[in-house]
From TrEMBL:
<dbReference type="GO" id="GO:0003755">
    <property type="term" value="F:peptidyl-prolyl cis-trans isomerase activity"/>
</dbReference>
<keyword id="KW-0413">Isomerase</keyword>
<feature type="domain" description="PpiC">
    <location>
        <begin position="182"/>
        <end position="286"/>
    </location>
</feature>
<feature type="region of interest" description="Disordered">
    <location>
        <begin position="1"/>
        <end position="24"/>
    </location>
</feature>
<dbReference type="InterPro" id="IPR046357">
    <property type="entry name" value="PPIase_dom_sf"/>
</dbReference>
<keyword id="KW-0697">Rotamase</keyword>
<comment type="similarity">
    <text>Belongs to the PpiC/parvulin rotamase family.</text>
</comment>
<dbReference type="Pfam" id="PF00639">
    <property type="entry name" value="Rotamase"/>
</dbReference>
<protein>
    <recommendedName>
        <fullName>peptidylprolyl isomerase</fullName>
        <ecNumber>5.2.1.8</ecNumber>
    </recommendedName>
</protein>
<dbReference type="InterPro" id="IPR000297">
    <property type="entry name" value="PPIase_PpiC"/>
</dbReference>
<dbReference type="InterPro" id="IPR050245">
    <property type="entry name" value="PrsA_foldase"/>
</dbReference>
Length: 343
C-alpha cells in the first residue's frame, strides 16, 4: 500500500494570504541593502516547487513556509482548494462528498473532522470496490441498492465469535462493580437563584445560604423550618411542596448538583451546594445505595455487549485487509472501532 499524508498547507491558495507574502518580501528587502526602490520589490510567497530549486536563501524560505503552515493548522475545508486530494486505486474521493460528510464526524478540532470524514469515504470506496469484485454481488448489486450490497458483503466476510457462558461469567466477575443499580435518594431544598456570571450577587447569596442553614439547625424542628423557609425564599417550583424534590436517581439533575448531592448523608447539609442556577440548601430525607445485581440478571446484556465488541473487531480486521490490498494516496488510515465505518 502506498500512503502519503495530507497537509492542508499544501492546498492553500497563496494569493489569499497577501499580508504574509508582504511580510516575507519586506524582510528580504530589509536584509538586501542594494535594493532601494520599493517598486522593485515583488511581493510573492515561495511555493513548494520553489523549495526544490537551489537557492541562496533556502533556510529563510523554509522558515517562511513553516510559518505559513502553522497559520493554517486548524483550517477546515471551506473551498475546493482546502480539501484533501485522496485517491483509492487511482479514483479520487469527491471533495463535495467530503464536505457533506463532515456533519457526521464531530471532533475536537476542524482538521480531525476533515480527516474522519475523508477516511469514512475511503472506507466506503474500499467496500464499493469489494462489492464490484465479488462474484455473487458485482456491479448490479451496487447499482440496485448500495447499502444492501455493503450489508451483504459484510455478512459474508465478517464472522464474529459468539461468547459462551463461561466467557460472559468471567467478564461479570472481572467487572462486578459495573453491575449495580443506581443509588436513589429523596431530598428537599431551597434554591437561592442567581445567574452564573453575576459574581457579586453569588457572594451575597452564598453568605445568605449559610445564614439560613444556621437558622434551620438552630430550630428544634429543622425539617419544619426548612419547609417554611423554602416557601418564603426558594426560586424552585418545588417551593409549593416545601422544597420536596421527591425521589432522585443519577442523571435526573445537573451534574454539578448531583455529584455533591449523592455524597451527602441524611440530614441538613452543612454547606450549600453551588450549581449553575445558584445555591441549594439541602436536606437528605432518605438514601438507598445501589444494589448488586447477580449474574443471571445481567447475563443477556453481557452477551450482547461482548457480541458487539467481537463483531466490531472482526470488521476492523476485514477493513485492514481491504486497506492493505489497495493503493491509497493522500491519507494515512487510522482504523479504530469508534470511527471505523458510518453505515
Amino acid at each position: 500500500m502506498t500512503v502519503s499524508t495530507y497537509n492542508p498547507a499544501d492546498h492553500v491558495n497563496c494569493d489569499t494570504h497577501a499580508p504574509n507574502s508582504s511580510t516575507v518580501a519586506d524582510k528580504t528587502a530589509m536584509d538586501t541593502s542594494t535594493i532601494t526602490n520599493k517598486d522593485d520589490i515583488v511581493h510573492l510567497m515561495p511555493t513548494l516547487t520553489d523549495l526544490k530549486k537551489p537557492h541562496s536563501d533556502q533556510e529563510f524560505i523554509e522558515k517562511a513556509m513553516a510559518e505559513e503552515r502553522s497559520n493554517h493548522k486548524n483550517l477546515i475545508a471551506s473551498s475546493r482548494d482546502e480539501l484533501p486530494s485522496v485517491l483509492v486505486n487511482g479514483v479520487m474521493i469527491d471533495r463535495t462528498a467530503i464536505a457533506q460528510e463532515l456533519q457526521y464526524h464531530p471532533a475536537e478540532n476542524k482538521e480531525d473532522a476533515v480527516f474522519l470524514a475523508t477516511q469514512a469515504l475511503v472506507v466506503r470506496e474500499l467496500l464499493r470496490l469489494a462489492v464490484l469484485s465479488d462474484s455473487s454481488l458485482g456491479e448490479s448489486a451496487w447499482d440496485e441498492d448500495e447499502e444492501k450490497a455493503i450489508s451483504s458483503l459484510i455478512d459474508k466476510n465478517v464472522k464474529a465469535t459468539t461468547p459462551n457462558n463461561a466467557i460472559c461469567e468471567r467478564y461479570y466477575e472481572q467487572n462486578i462493580t459495573d453491575f449495580m443499580t443506581d443509588p436513589i435518594m429523596s431530598a428537599r431544598h431551597i434554591l437561592l437563584a442567581c445567574l452564573p456570571e453575576d459574581g457579586d450577587e453569588r457572594l451575597k447569596l452564598k453568605k445568605t445560604a449559610y445564614d439560613l442553614i444556621e437558622q434551620i439547625n438552630a430550630d428544634s424542628n429543622s425539617t419544619a423550618a426548612l419547609i417554611e423557609l423554602a416557601r418564603q425564599h426558594s426560586a424552585c417550583p418545588s417551593k409549593e411542596q416545601g422544597g420536596d424534590l421527591g425521589v432522585i436517581s443519577k442523571g435526573q439533575t445537573v451534574p454539578e448538583f448531583e455529584s455533591t448531592l449523592f455524597k451527602l448523608e441524611t440530614g441538613i447539609a452543612p454547606s450549600p451546594i453551588e450549581s449553575r442556577y445558584g445555591f441549594h440548601i439541602v436536606e437528605v430525607l432518605n438514601k438507598q445505595p445501589g444494589i448488586q445485581m447477580n449474574y443471571e440478571q445481567v447475563s443477556a446484556a453481557i452477551a450482547n455487549k461482548l457480541s458487539q465488541q467481537a463483531f466490531h473487531q472482526s470488521l476492523c480486521d476485514y477493513l485492514f485487509t481491504l486497506t492493505d490490498e489497495a493503493e491509497i494516496q493522500g491519507i494515512e488510515m487510522v482504523l479504530a472501532q469508534e470511527n471505523i465505518y458510518r453505515g
